């Protein structure tokens, strides 16, 4: 039984250089998952703290000294012959010049190129996490003018991932506002996801954001979108999103929020416990702002999602 198998705790680094490129290395032919590409890292020694193991493994394997690292995602994966807990960290500052210290092939690649390489099966959500930013803004507005103004304000803060959820517009305005928002997003290389509750033609949309109701009605991942995400409120919905192979989820409400006064907040502790049970990048939503990012990362989240939180820089 897999539950009796010992779980190997592995420290893994998504190492980024000054241009945002990511370091990947190739596993030795004879190793577990041999020949596939990976993010450098290795097993914790008995009693060793994970950050210490990360620093030791990256020094041993690619000759760098970690200066700054933050949690990215944790993946629990059972390969049948072994069960691993991949404890993945973003390494954003380091000293030294990376090299393949064990003779392994090595490449610095753009995040978007990660899908062109073959990684072990457990790495799929790590790749999504490495490609996603830490903030996911939700666009709302009570009129066409307000929605467009909000969009400009959000994009001016540097947001790169946006959900179109302008619910209260007459449908005659909606498609028009959507086209304008799409254009602004294209110009500024922002990924745009359309909420499925809106009667918008999504043929040219880059992404789809499923409401929790739409999520549960799906039998397979919708085709043809770069990003497919979903709104979740509990473990069952998160598990369903993961099983469908979605790219990420939003979990709400983490804190009390004026926009949903009747929903009981999950709190940070429950958020942490839920995220430990799934292998999917998840943005924390509800009563949060940019200043909550570090806390969200420690809880295991990808980052923060919000509506009003991103209308202005902090
Ligand atoms: N380092 C690393 N390991 C991964 C990744 N994805 C993945 O499934 N693994 C699995 O996690 C385990 C990590 O082991 P490792 O081989 O790197 O461990 P290590 O550096 O301590 O190696 P050693 O046993 O040669 O000392 C392996 O079973 C490997 O297949 C990844 O992206 N990076
Ligand atoms: Mg290793």
From TrEMBL:
The keyword Cell wall biogenesis/degradation does not apply. It is an enzyme of class 3 (hydrolase). The keyword Signal does not apply. Its EC number is 3.6.1.55. Keywords: DNA damage, DNA repair, DNA replication, Hydrolase, Magnesium, Metal-binding, Mutator protein. PANTHER family: 8-OXO-DGTP DIPHOSPHATASE, NUDIX HYDROLASE FAMILY PROTEIN. This is 8-oxo-dGTP diphosphatase. It comes from Methylomonas rosea.
């Amino acid at each position: 039984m897999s539950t009796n198998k010992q779980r190997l705790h592995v420290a893994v680094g998504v190492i980024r250089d000054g241009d945002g490129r990511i370091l990947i290395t190739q596993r030795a032919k004879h190793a577990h998952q041999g020949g596939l590409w990976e993010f450098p890292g290795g097993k914790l020694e008995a009693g060793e703290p994970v950050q210490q193991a990360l620093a030791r493994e990256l020094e041993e394997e690619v000759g760098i000294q970690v200066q700054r690292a933050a949690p990215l995602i944790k993946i629990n994966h059972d390969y049948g012959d072994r069960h691993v807990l991949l404890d993945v960290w973003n390494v954003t500052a380091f000293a030294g010049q990376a090299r393949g210290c064990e003779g392994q092939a090595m490449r610095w690649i753009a995040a978007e190129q990660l899908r062109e390489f073959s990684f072990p099966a457990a790495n799929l959500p790590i790749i999504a996490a490495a490609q996603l930013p830490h903030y996911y803004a939700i666009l709302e507005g009570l009129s066409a003018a307000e929605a467009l103004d909000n969009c400009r304000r959000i994009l001016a803060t540097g947001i790169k991932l946006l959900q179109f959820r302008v619910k209260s517009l007459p449908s005659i305005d909606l498609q028009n506002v959507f086209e304008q928002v799409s254009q602004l997003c294209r110009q500024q290389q922002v990924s745009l996801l359309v909420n499925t509750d809106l009667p918008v033609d999504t043929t040219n949309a880059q992404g789809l954001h499923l409401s929790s109701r739409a999520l549960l009605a799906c039998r397979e991942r919708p085709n043809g979108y770069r990003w497919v995400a979903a709104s979740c409120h509990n473990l069952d919905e998160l598990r369903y999103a993961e099983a469908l192979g979605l790219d990420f989820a939003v979990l709400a409400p983490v804190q009390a929020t004026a926009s949903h006064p009747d929903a009981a907040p999950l709190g940070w502790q429950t958020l942490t416990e839920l995220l430990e049970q799934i292998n999917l990048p998840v943005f924390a939503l509800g009563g949060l702002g940019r200043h909550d990012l570090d806390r969200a990362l420690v809880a295991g989240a990808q980052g923060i999602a919000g509506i009003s939180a991103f209308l202005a820089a902090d």
